[in-house]
Amino acid sequence: MADKIQYPTRPLRFRLMNRIVRYAPVTAKYHHNSILFRKTVDAPEMPAIPAGYEFRSATREDLDFITNHPEALMRGVYAKRLERGDRCYCLSDGKEIVSYNWVAFSLCCVLCGFDRGVEFFPLSKEQAFTYDFYTYKARRGGGLGSTAKQLLVTTLAGQCIREVYTLVMPYSTASLKIHLRLGYEPMCMVYGYRVLGWSRTYYGKADEKQWLDAWIDNFRVSACV
């Protein structure tokens, strides 16, 4: 069962850093240990869109819907993302947004749009970074998130994007399943930290790739991917 899959073992120094950040006596802090995935885009065929649904770059009305939804992030985040040049793509059922995904074209980022966000490696004109992949709770379980992600990859291919990157936390089972089924390949672990104005992003070393691949293989079997 997927809920029995153990979190991948992290190197001792990152486990120690997690504890230091966790117990630091300040509120402006966070840490994340995520898997960096990459997908090479080769002009895939446009998947079928369910009847009555539409996939598009978010309009002002769509962003208003997302901003005012009870499951929205704090106000101001989406506007800051637009200022960065990022773009939101969404799958809608009439006027109702059911799933969305943000895309960055200049820099990969964590907590994009937040004051405590961190940007890491830059992107070329043929690369994109997707983040905040979200399907509303009431619309989950029907494959709409997977459809939206596949439609996004096809759309980006039409914009001459050849590589797509994303970060997925190892305990995000549903997201891991979708990305692996769509052919995303794990590159390395990424460890990010912020305490007040200090921030660092570290990448897993080459010798960690073996156990990461083994963990992914175990996940595929356990989660029936």
Topology:
Layout: H1 12-23, E1 29-40, E2 53-57, H2 60-68, H3 77-84, E3 87-93, E4 96-104, E5 107-110, E6 118-122, E7 127-135, H4 144-157, E8 163-168, H5 173-181, E9 185-195, E10 198-203, H6 209-222
Parallel strand pairs: 7-8
Antiparallel strand pairs: 1-8, 1-9, 2-3, 3-4, 4-7, 5-6, 9-10
Can you describe this structure?
This protein is α+β, with helices and mostly antiparallel strands. The protein has helices spanning 12-23, 60-68, 77-84, 144-157, 173-181, 209-222, and strands at residues 29-40, 53-57, 87-93, 96-104, 107-110, 118-122, 127-135, 163-168, 185-195, 198-203. The chain has 6 helices and 10 strands. A hairpin with a 2-residue loop joins strand 3 (87-93) and strand 4 (96-104). The termini are close together.
Summarize the structure.
The protein contains six helices and ten strands. The model has no long low-confidence stretch (mean pLDDT 90).
